[in-house]
Amino acid sequence: MKESHAIQALSALAHEHRMAIFKTLMREGPSGLPAGTIGERLGLGGSKVSFHVGMMERAGLLRSWRVNRHIYYAVEIDGMRELLGFLTEDCCGGHPEICGALFATAQVCGDD
Q1: Which of 10, 34, 61, 96 could form a disulfide with 70 if both were Cys (CB 3.0 to 4.6 A apart)?
Q2: Phi then psi for 70, rounded to 5 degrees?
Q3: pTM strictly above 0.90
Q4: If you classify domain 3-110 with CATH, what class do you get?
């Protein structure tokens, strides 16, 4: 991952509504949620949800698909893995055992 892409992804998460949407979708897993359900759960209007998910989708953190009249969103697992990998690739100056659980989590997220 290029640094500019990591900055875009981190910027996309740097807002309370986007972080809440991302965490909600992380809990749902690959099945995701329709945009309306996201809005209902978080108390956000449709246009706000659309704006925020669009930003995260452009950053490679979410994916979307249409089912009839509904647009579903889910976390883009590969995008999240790339970001975590970028953030932890130089963990602890080549001594990942110092990082403990952080490194183990990043390793698990990076497994295919």
Answers
A1: 34
A2: -105, 140
A3: no
A4: mainly alpha
